[in-house]
Amino acid sequence: MGRPSVQDQRRQEVLDAFMTCVATYGVEGATLEKIAAEAGLKRPLIRHHLGNREAMVLALGNHIAETLNQQSALLRESLGNPPSTRALIEVLFSTDHASDPRTNICYQSLSNSVALYPDLRQPLLSAMETLYQVAVDIVRAGHPTADAKICETVAHGIINLYVTTDAFVPLNPPESWASNSFLAAIRLAETLGAES
Amino acid sequence: MGRPSVQDQRRQEVLDAFMTCVATYGVEGATLEKIAAEAGLKRPLIRHHLGNREAMVLALGNHIAETLNQQSALLRESLGNPPSTRALIEVLFSTDHASDPRTNICYQSLSNSVALYPDLRQPLLSAMETLYQVAVDIVRAGHPTADAKICETVAHGIINLYVTTDAFVPLNPPESWASNSFLAAIRLAETLGAES
DNA sequence: CGTTTGGCTGTCCACATTGACAGAAAATTT
DNA sequence: AAATTTTCTGTCAATGTGGACAGCCAAACG
After folding, report:
1. Cis peptide bond prior to B82, omega within 30° of 0
2. pTM
3. How far lies B99's CA from each of A118, A157, B4, B35, B67, in Å?
4. CA A91 – CA A175 distance, rounded (Å)
5. Residue B92 and residue B178 in contact, taking contact as beta carbons nearer than 8 Å
6. Of A3, A76, A160, B85, which has the fewest beta carbons less than 10 angstroms from its beta carbon?
7. Chain A 40-99 residues whose Cβ is under 7 Å from strand D
């Protein structure tokens, strides 16, 4: 049968190194050499596992989207039954929640590259839709009597406030930026009245 | 006296072309040739006007920060006396307000490059602080009796919701994403009660 | 032990990009 | 018209980057 294949594992490792490089140097700044150094491999192996540059970028886009989808699923499960909007906000903004900080930075970088790699759009868009949907479901569960459209607005607002906070991380802003987003999300949730 | 200098104007044109390229290709993807093509000049002239790559990036960072500061000042003036929070939100989210869409994309790209160009951090950070401050002042003017800390939270929330909306523009999301952010900002503002 | 299968390395070429310089062309003043 | 200053062009070398290939090495199986 020959040597057993570790291709799947290697592919994950290379993808992870690519993710680190994109987060640090941007999509166009993540060269094969930097990725190879990060992965501890030789440059030709990167190509062997992920294909040419375009294939690499699309693979990363799908990987990021998949990661976000898993986080959405986790979020849905980790909140008690019935889930509370307050708990959603606290999980999103808790520092120990600590979703991999590279994920959101890569998401941003890839978003800005959609014009160059159009196939990125679909997975990135639907990953975000999924996250929105989880938030909407949680908010509606916590406020069954509230208007559906209003719940949607509040849920989107909470997620967007969270996203902004993450987007500013590379700037290392004062702590107040994050706490103001957190407090704003709380206030927004409270417009729905007490939870059931 | 010799030929008259058009250096200042050329510098602005080159900076503008650089901005377009960064918005399209990212910081590392904006090569001198692409910038030259965009500016309608020959490559060596780019270097002549903006210096080497690092100087170019820092110049763009300062230019973006300056642009944002001007927009902040404009925002402060364009709102009536007394300014209303509602008007602030409507101006921010109005499509015809149409601040140059490249500005926010460049801001994001540059933010993600702070690790490589540390001198970018200061101007980007204080431009955002300025924008926050304008929003805080407007909200406080509209709600003179409200608690100062709460006004700060609401103002930051409004700005952050606006920022997120702009950040998603490259993904060309469904129109509902923007309208939900807008409605969330309105709801958030309403938590302060009626305006004076 | 040999074969087979797959992972890994070394090396090559083509091309893009940056950085630098010398010199031509243009415009204004004297 | 001549001189001067600035703008612009052409070209070179050095380096970085992507893409491709041939061949070696390691591990499992018969």
Report:
1. yes
2. 0.92
3. 25, 22, 33, 22, 10
4. 17
5. no
6. A3
7. 43-44, 47, 52-54
